Fold this sequence. Notes:
The chain folds into 2 domains: 5-257, Type I PLP-dependent aspartate aminotransferase-like (Major domain) (Aspartate Aminotransferase, domain 2), CATH 3.40.640.10; 261-400, Aspartate Aminotransferase, domain 1, CATH 3.90.1150. Helix content is 41%, strand content 14%. The protein has 14 helices and 12 strands.
Amino acid sequence: MTDTPEKWNAATKAVHAGTRRSQYGEVSEAIFLTQGFVYDSAEHAEARFVEAGPDEFIYARYGNPTVAMFEDRIAALEGAEDAFATASGMAAVSGALTSMLKAGDHVVSSRALFGSCLYVLEEILTRYGVEVTFVDGPDLDQWKAAIRPDTVAVFFESVSNPTLTVVDIAGVSALAHAHGALVVVDNVFATPVYSRAIEQGADVVIYSATKHIDGQGRALGGVILGTRDFIRGTVEPYMKHTGGSMSPFTAWVMLKGLETMNLRVRAQTASAQTLAERLEGHPMLSRVIYPGLPSHAQHDLVTRQTGAGGTVLALEVRGGKRASYAFLNSIKVGVISNNLGDAKTILTPPAFTTHQRLPQDQKDALGISEGLVRVSVGLEDTGDLIADFEQALQVASEMEQAPAE
């Protein structure tokens, strides 16, 4: 460990960066549960509203010492100049995009997105006069054709939800920057542990802190990372007036999550890799989709971009909805829910949950079949997970062979 925080390695930054201690010298970060702050005088109040210093606060919607610790820590970890913490991951996505766009602007986005992200792009932004063009994320030729001189921003999930297609951050960034467009990356599946998004060209990085940063299913949160000018000049004015900021208690939960995130995510990734390798080729599965498998279409890109396959895989169960539901309902170790990045293994059928609002032709184009199951691998014993998945697939096999009622 070096003696300057800027030179610390990531694991050290995740534990110590951004710490503010009160006069009591507490070890665990303090929670400042207060809406407002007291000024020494009327003149002091006036001066702070004109320009607050780096460790001065006005109102919890504008900033808070506990929230600032989380923002500083995640910014140091990501290699960003600054960060703004939000009430949820979707508050981060909508806040980042809405704060920078106006009527008449053009955005290019990958087509494979989480359902709520699609809603923001298709329904909200277009309602206010923003033009959105969708492309197939892995196809750089489509990005090149779609990005125009008047394109303001490009947006994509670095690893798409739920079919785990991977977008070339450096490749898309080069195309976007040639036209002066900002690159906005939803990086939740890559996690801050494996992220090199800013180094690879991203201007703005978004996380749902609800996922791996908390990692234990306790709180909603999000964060927008970028240059100081963008965060404080563009994002902060929008967020503080529209009310999407993170609560101090949530920020404290996220700080505690960051302390163990490196250990958790690496252990979950190792289990996901083993589980994917074990299940690939199983007779009840038509596909095992996992970026860490050589069979993944962008495996070489994954190796260069993050160096690991991550904590999530997708299984396409033969027999469609009936068989996949039999598989899900037979799982004993994991749980059925719609979160991911949790200490518990979580499974969901995206076609009927997170992506159920998509028209069928879009589901077909994205590969979201009735038999697809997204699996977020937790911290359980890997052997227990393998045994559980294999017995559940056996139940699904028997169900498939049985006549439908």
